[in-house]
Amino acid sequence: MDGEGSERFDAVIVGAGQAGLAAGYHLKQAGRSFVILDANDRIGGSWRTRYDSLRLFTPSWAIKLPGWRYPRRSARCPTREQMADYLEAYARRFDLPVRTGVHVERISRDGDHYVLSLHDDRIEAEHVIVASGADRDPRVPAFSRELDPGIVQMHSSDYRNTSQLGDGGVLVVGAGNSGADISLDVVGSHPTWLSGPDRGHIPVSIDTWVSRHIAFRIVRFVGLHVQTTRTARGRKAKAKQASRGDMLVRVKPKQIVAAGVERVPKTMGVRDGKPMLEDGRVLDVANVIWCTGFRHDLSWIDLPIFGEDGELVHERGVVASEPGLYFVGLFFQYSSASDVIPGVPRDARYVVERLLERERRGALRETRVAA
Hints:
- The protein is of the alpha/beta class.
- The chain has helices at residues 18-29, 45-48, 80-93, 177-186, 209-226, 232-244, 253-258, 344-370; strands at 7-14, 34-37, 64-65, 68-69, 98-99, 106-110, 113-117, 122-130, 135-138, 152-155, 170-173, 192-195, 262-264, 267-271, 274-277, 287-290, 294-296, 325-327.
């Protein structure tokens, strides 16, 4: 405990997903005093709360956090529950100090250390690794409030299965990977419309043997070593992904049409309480599922770490303006794989190495002063 009764650690990790656990592994190996805080009630909660039919894009053989590979070495891609169970088992295997059900409301600085403000407590640390991602708030257009109150509305982060829906048609807004998956999930029991532009798709099935064993290795290599912030190709890919969004990976446009889902233009507003499309068409639906992503929000970090454009300023997750503050799991943190499972271990190792270097420099300065 510190002077005011708050706990104090060498480091605090915010988020117990794959990024936070990977960073925790390296801190544990280094013998540091640390804690991992997660707002979910259970490790892997960010996976468990996704829709029931979710499967990862990464084949089982390619999932490996530091020190332990995913135990089921099949070529199939795990379900959301299987991935969550792996994370839970990983934390248990390495005895990582995870505290669940803890929401960090604010990160600030007090002199030479950071303060993490919780609901009714605080924790102090010399170093903080933010591994919770920047996308914490579901994004829904303001005009959604104008829809008839009888229409069932939910964000994709709240959708689990069709039992949540009312009788009648379903409009899925957002034609990315979540929107495509959910539209196929609901079309078997409800007339379904998928709204949004076509952002392209991977032309081959990712569930074939060739794709899982050969093509995935090529894609992983490009994502880790070619498309990085240090290469012109990587910087171009980052700008393109940020402006256009991701292309479809597993689901193909022809599968959507073949299943009976009707593709429609972008949803632009509301007329007479019903959703209105870009072409002026109004859809008489009983349900709307907003697959419109999340707000990029780090406003809960009360530190001068943002540029004039409001974006986080960092170098591979290291924040130069706030020594001791680090990030893991950000979009294109270093490469196009940084926010997905194949890229997380490398970035976690890098930021922990920088953390330990900073500790060593501090210890050396103290030794010189004492001498």
